[in-house]
Structures are given as C-alpha cells and as structure tokens.
C-alpha cells in the first residue's frame, strides 16, 4: 500500500510480508517504484509551500493528535511489530512507547524553534538568523525498529515544517502503514507525509537524484548509506546517516561483575542482538575473564528463545534466513580460530515451526583473527576478548571503521571519565548498557554516520539557518 497526497493507493504489483517466527505470510500489499516515488516527491513539494507557513502551534496540534491516535492503537501496533519483526511482545510494546515518545517530544519542540539576533558591525544595520525548514525530506528506515525509526525521523521533520516521503524496509512495512493510518486520521494536510513501499534501489535512486528532495535521512547499513551519500552529492542534499556499529563493551577488574554481566545481557540479547548499538565485542580484564564468562554463560543459557507472541520469551527469531546464515558462519569461523563455545552455538529448532532462531551464544577466547572481531554480527552472539591494561584496551576498542556506541564498566570514576574521553564513539554508556533516551542525541562518528536524531539536536537536522542583514536608518 502506498500513501500519496493524502490517499491510500493500490497497485498491480504486490509483495508478501512474512512472519520471521513462522515463515507465514502476514499480509500481501501493493508496492510502487520510481514513478510513484516521483509523484510522492512532487506532491510533497506542493504541500511544503503551505506546510512551511503553518505556525509551530499548528504543527504541534497535529502531532499531538497523532500521539493520541497512536496511544489508542498501541496494543495493535505492538502486535504488528512482533508479527513482522519477530521481537518479543514486551519489547514491541516498549518500542511503541518510544515511537510515541518521539512524536510527543517533537510536538513540544515544534513550538520552540528560535532564531538569533546578532550584534551589528555598523549602527544602521540589523542582523538576524532565522530558522527555516529544509524542504522535502526523503526518509529510509530499517526493519529492526520498524515503528520508532519512522517516528524518530518524521516527527522532527514535521515539527520543523518539512514534508516527507518515507520508504520503510520491505521486511517490515506494516508498522509504517499503521503510523500513516494515524497521520491520515489526524487530518494532516494532503502531501505532507507520503509513503512508498517497493524495490529499494529504484525508490532510493529517485529519492537521491530528484532535485526537489532537499534532505535524505537514512538508517541502515554503512554499505547502503555510502551509496546514498554518493548519489546525493550531485544535487548537494542535506544528509543524516545512522549507519552500522560494532560496539565494544569493556569490563575492568574493578567493575561490579554481576552488574557488567547484566549489562551484557541487555545490550547483547535485546532484539536478538539486531540493533546497531548492540554489544559486539566484550573486552574483559584477563584476571576476571573466567568468572565473567561463567556467569554470562549461566545467565545466557537461561534465556527463552521462541515466537515473540508467546509469554515469557526473551529472544525472538532473526529477521530472515540470510541473517541466520551470517550468524552461523561467524560462529563457525570463531570455532576455527580457537573460540570456545560456553553456551549456544547452533540454530534453534522448534517443532513444526519454520522460524529463523539461533541459540544465544557465549564465545570465550575471542581474538582479532575472527570475523566477529570486525564484522557487524546482528545476532545473539557474545564474544569475550581479554585484555591486560587500560591503554591497550582503549586502542583495541577504537580499532575499526565504526564509531556508534561503546560501553565501559568500572567503579573508578576517574577511569570512567578517562576512558569515556578516549573512546571514538558517538554514544558512550559508563556502567549503563541502555543509554538511549528521546532527549539525547543518537548518532555515530567515523563510518557509523553523520548527524543526530533525538532531542533538540534531532530538530536541527531539519532546519536551515537563514542569515538576514537589514540596512535601515
Ligand atoms: P539491513 O542490512 O539492515 O537490511 P540495509 O541498509 O540493506 O540494512 O537496509 C536499510 C534500509 O535501506 C531498508 O529500508 C532497505 O530497503 C533500504 N535500502 C537497501 N538498499 C537500498 C538502495 N540501494 N537504495 C535505497 N535504499 C536501500
């Protein structure tokens, strides 16, 4: 289903949406391509002419109505997320709350877009800076947070006065459709928000080459992000990129080991390890590594794997067979490089169910020769590396091309600050495995991306500064 200029559109071409826990078809939906994307961009441009002139209060009112409608449909939305993404229902519910949170936050911020006046260099001049919306924004979102990634982009865009064309991930379009249902019901003016579902490359090419798109905002892999960046150069678009990560988590020997184990459980196995801030490398001080490994394996082996709709499930399926294959290959590779499997280590079969499950796995003795040391895992695999000294571990933690999130466990506050300053990452959690909140800037450095989402920083990404000098005597 496409949503263009305030109308739901059916097409001849269809796509199945599959439940990764059961391999069943959840729904068959219409898709569109280059033509539909172009049309959506044209309509978004027309709508921008009037949407940009609305007051912050007006935009706030619209967004608050979307919030009200999403709260009404929250349970249904969580069920849809679990069906198309696989994550346990409790996690889906917190995603819905987060998604609504972004809309609520930016409904408030829409009223607080301030400019500046500047001191002039001569008495008869008056200088000011006003903030203006960027224009038509093309948003591309991933499947791992199919609802909250949509609102984290669209809410600040609308608050700023931009109009939007969204392309959600083909694996999880139903969450996006539900948000657009709310936009429709809230009575957003025609063309302000548009939804195009279909072949990624075709839609992406139109988005990046069309001069009417003034901003591209993307969350996904570094590989695709680089292509979009390259293709956006010709028309010099404003860009936000939330790309891959390979988060280190360092446990010093002065840390509270149980707290650090809990931290790994949360930052590694949530969403089956399929988040870009998931811990990928656990660096544990050599003298506590055995104890840490034992405790982590003990807790990990108690996690319940299964269909996210069932009660008490901790870890759902991976998104598809390719994801499962990648995890299998990484574990196999770790074994051939002397990795010791403390628990898990194989696919997880459920009788009569054709899902993409993998056992939560702890690998002791991890080393830099393993693929898992540099390649993003996106699965429930916890490799434990050991280290001797602070400088050494910082250098190893900073190794590689990614720079999204990093974690550190220590009870020494001085060490916590030192390490935090040295880590080349956009997000750092000290004794905190879950640092993400709506008011904070989410984003990476190095090849993890550019630009921030969340809080006041997220709004700036959709605004331009216009400098005005008035000569008036
Ligand atoms: P992942 O490997 O996590 O699926 P991707 O970067 O492939 O990450 O996907 C993230 C989003 O980017 C999805 O919406 C996907 O459809 C989209 N995408 C993938 N390839 C392209 C492309 N060539 N142009 C535009 N969007 C793309």
Can you give a write-up of this model?
The protein is α/β, with parallel strands linked by helices and 473 residues long. It folds into two domains: 2-243 and 446-471, Aldehyde Dehydrogenase, Chain A, domain 1 (3-Layer(aba) Sandwich); 247-430, Aldehyde Dehydrogenase, Chain A, domain 2 (3-Layer(aba) Sandwich). It is 38% helix and 21% strand. It has helices at 34-51, 56-72, 74-85, 89-109, 148-160, 173-185, 200-209, 222-232, 257-269, 289-300, 321-336, 390-398, 413-422, 455-460, and strands at 2-4, 7-9, 14-18, 25-30, 116-118, 125-133, 136-140, 163-167, 193-195, 213-219, 238-242, 247-251, 279-285, 340-343, 361-364, 381-387, 405-409, 427-430, 449-450, 463-471. The strands form five sheets. The protein has a seven-stranded mixed beta sheet, with helices on both faces. It has a six-stranded mixed beta sheet with strand order 9-8-7-10-11-19, sandwiched between helices. The longest helix is centred in the first third of the chain and has 21 residues, at 89-109. The protein is globular. 53% of the residues are buried. The model has no long low-confidence stretch (mean pLDDT 97). It binds adenosine-5'-diphosphate. Adenosine-5'-diphosphate (ADP) binds at residues 140-142, 167, 169-170, 200-201, 204, 220-221, 224, 227.
């Amino acid at each position: 289903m496409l949503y263009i200029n305030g109308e739901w559109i059916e097409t001849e071409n269809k796509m199945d949406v599959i439940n990764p826990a059961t391999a069943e078809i959840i729904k068959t939906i219409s898709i569109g391509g280059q033509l539909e994307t172009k049309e959506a961009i044209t309509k978004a441009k027309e709508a921008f002419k009037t949407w940009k002139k609305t007051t912050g209060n007006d935009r706030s009112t619209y967004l608050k109505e979307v919030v009200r409608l999403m709260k009404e449909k929250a349970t249904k939305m969580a069920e849809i997320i679990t069906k198309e993404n696989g994550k346990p229902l409790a996690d889906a519910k917190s995603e819905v709350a987060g998604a609504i949170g972004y809309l609520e936050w930016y409904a408030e911020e829409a009223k607080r877009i301030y400019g500046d006046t500047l001191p002039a260099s001569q008495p008869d001049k008056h200088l000011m800076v006003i903030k203006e919306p960027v224009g038509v924004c093309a948003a591309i979102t991933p499947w791992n947070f199919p609802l909250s990634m949509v609102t984290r982009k669209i809410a600040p865009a609308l608050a700023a006065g931009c109009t939007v064309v969204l392309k959600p991930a083909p694996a999880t379009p139903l969450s996006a459709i539900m948000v657009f249902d709310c936009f429709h019901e809230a009575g957003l003016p025609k063309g302000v928000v548009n939804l195009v579902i279909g072949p990624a490359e075709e839609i992406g090419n139109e988005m990046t080459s069309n001069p009417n798109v003034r901003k591209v905002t993307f969350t996904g892999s570094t590989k695709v992000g680089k292509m979009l960046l390259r293709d956006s150069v010709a028309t010099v678009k404003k860009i936000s990129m939330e790309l891959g990560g390979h988060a280190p988590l360092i446990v010093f020997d002065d840390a509270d080991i149980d707290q650090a184990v809990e931290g790994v459980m949360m930052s590694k196995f949530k969403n089956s390890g399929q988040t870009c801030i998931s811990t990928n490398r656990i660096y544990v001080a050599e003298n506590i590594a055995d104890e840490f490994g034992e405790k982590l394996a003990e807790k990990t082996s108690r996690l319940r794997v299964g269909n996210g709709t069932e009660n008490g499930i901790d870890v759902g399926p991976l998104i598809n067979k390719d994801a499962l294959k990648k995890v299998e290959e990484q574990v196999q590779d770790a074994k051939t490089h002397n990795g010791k499997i403390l628990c898990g280590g194989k696919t997880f079969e459920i009788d009569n169910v054709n899902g993409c499950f993998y056992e939560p796995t702890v690998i002791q003795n991890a080393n830099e020769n393993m693929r898992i040391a540099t390649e993003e895992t996106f699965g429930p695999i916890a490799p434990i590396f050991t280290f001797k000294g602070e400088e050494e571990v910082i250098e190893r933690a900073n190794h590689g091309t990614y720079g999204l999130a990093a974690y550190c466990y220590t009870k020494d506050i001085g060490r916590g600050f030192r390490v935090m300053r040295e880590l080349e990452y956009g997000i750092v959690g000290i004794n905190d495995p879950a640092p993400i909140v709506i008011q904070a800037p989410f984003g990476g450095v190095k090849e993890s991306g550019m630009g921030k989402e969340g809080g006041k920083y997220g709004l700036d990404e959709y605004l331009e500064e216009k400098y005005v000098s008035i000569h008036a005597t």
